[in-house]
């Protein structure tokens, strides 16, 4: 199983600021350290996960398993929006996971579905 890691981080020190209030007294703010980081691991699906996903999609759409290639788009397999929802529900049930709606809406290919499932199971 291959994994792709994207890590980014940034940090900065906020400058010292001096403010004046309405009564002309100086208000001093000390420098502050501000940090921002993000971390995301994209796990490529295992062969077993991909095979299970292909099988479920084949069964849901009533198509031959050989037609359900990893790079096949759901729409090219004849899936409409209702079919896609049913596929996602079947995948959630089979793998005992919950796919968030936003992420599930971005899935367009069999491989993307398998990768997202692998990521959920990690």
Automatic annotation (TrEMBL):
Keywords, alphabetical: Fatty acid biosynthesis, Fatty acid metabolism, Lipid biosynthesis, Lipid metabolism, Phosphopantetheine, Phosphoprotein
Transmembrane segments: none
InterPro entries cross-referenced by the UniProt entry: ACP, ACP-like_sf, ACP_chloroplastic, PKS_PP-bd, PP-bd_ACP
Classification via SMART domains: PKS_PP (SM00823)
GO MF entries: acyl carrier activity; phosphopantetheine binding
Domain Carrier stretches: 47-121
Family matches, as Pfam families: PP-binding
Matching NCBIfam families: acyl_carrier, PRK00982.1-2, PRK00982.1-4
Similarity section: Belongs to the acyl carrier protein (ACP) family.
Biological function: Carrier of the growing fatty acid chain in fatty acid biosynthesis.
The name this protein goes by in its record: Acyl carrier protein
Source species taxonomy: Eukaryota, Viridiplantae, Chlorophyta, Mamiellophyceae, Mamiellales
């Amino acid at each position: 199983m291959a994994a792709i890691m994207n890590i980014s981080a940034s940090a900065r020190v906020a400058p010292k600021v001096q403010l004046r209030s309405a009564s002309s007294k100086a208000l001093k703010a000390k420098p502050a350290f501000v940090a921002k980081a993000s971390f995301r691991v994209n796990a490529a699906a295992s062969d077993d996960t991909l095979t299970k996903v292909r099988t479920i999609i084949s069964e849901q759409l009533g198509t031959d398993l050989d037609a359900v290639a990893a790079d096949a788009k759901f729409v090219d397999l004849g899936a409409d929006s209702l079919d896609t929802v049913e596929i996602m529900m079947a995948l959630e049930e089979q793998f005992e996971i919950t796919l968030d709606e936003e992420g599930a809406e971005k899935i367009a290919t069999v491989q993307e579905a398998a990768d997202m499932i692998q990521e959920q199971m990690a």
